Amino acid sequence: MTSYPPSNRKGTYISIFWSIFNMGGVIGGLIPFILNYHRSEAASVNDGTYIAFMCFMSLGALLSLAILPASKVVRNDGTKCSSIMYSNVSTECFEILKLFLNWKMLLIVPAAWSSNFFYTYQFNNVNGALFNLRTRGLNNVFYWGAQMLGSVGIGYIMDLSFKSRRKRGIVGISLVALLGSAIWVGGLINQIKSSSDNNSLPEKLDFKDSGSRFAGPFVLYFCFGLLDAIFQSMVYWVIGALADDSEILSRYTGFYKGIQSAGAAVAWQVDAHKVPPMSQLIVNWILTSISYPLLLTLVILAVKDDNKNENNNAQK
Fold first, then answer.
1. What CATH number is given to the structural domain containing 32?
2. Which segment of the chain is annotated as a signal peptide (predicted)?
3. More confident position, 164 or 294
4. Are 169 and 299 in contact, with CB atoms under 8 Å apart?
5. pTM for the whole thing?
């Protein structure tokens, strides 16, 4: 999604990938919602849920065998996605280690760390803490559906809003910063209310509940899905704008995913040690907020509208 498209279509390709990617989340929410519709809150999901997941994963593994090698992929303008036919383990290890000294990757670290760090708070302390079993499944349908909408919207801005690629990046990051901050404000309001009402709520929320008691947390969780999509699509676009060659971008995205997974691992442990939800929310808000000026700096200093110059700089 970062190396196959031409430079002016990377946002579109990322949004297409993200929509397909999160269609799995929509189906993954529907399955437990339907199969556990009449089950009590105390019950665990049934065996059919796991069987359905295993079938989808097996099918996906088989379909991956049909992917064309990057060295054989040619863009519409005649350029190849990779000029390297193969690599080896020692070369890759050395090149990956160099990324930890690469100033471009260091500027991405806070965004990479925070991009899955906030999942724990959203899943456990919003969806898990406020809603019952079947409603959590339904909420996830809309959470991942919101991601599809968000990725399409930010992809359009990153590709088509301005002629200058650097300007598109600046506008896109600024917009995500504004929307993201607004969503975290909503999360703060909800967390304050949840903390104050914690002892008075007789039971967890159900989708059949009417009024603001259900609507407010539901809309917030939907917006969290939007935030995840626009935030991660924005970061992938910035990574894709740093180079066009698939070998270089595979290392960049691998670095991003590695830091991202490390952040997620820490976040789950933070929650397991009973850190107050309010503290988790504040940390998440700070981490995402720090990311925006660093990404803006990266776009201003490293992203150019001349693709050839950009490609040469990336390889250096």
1. 1.20.1250.20
2. none
3. 294
4. yes
5. 0.86
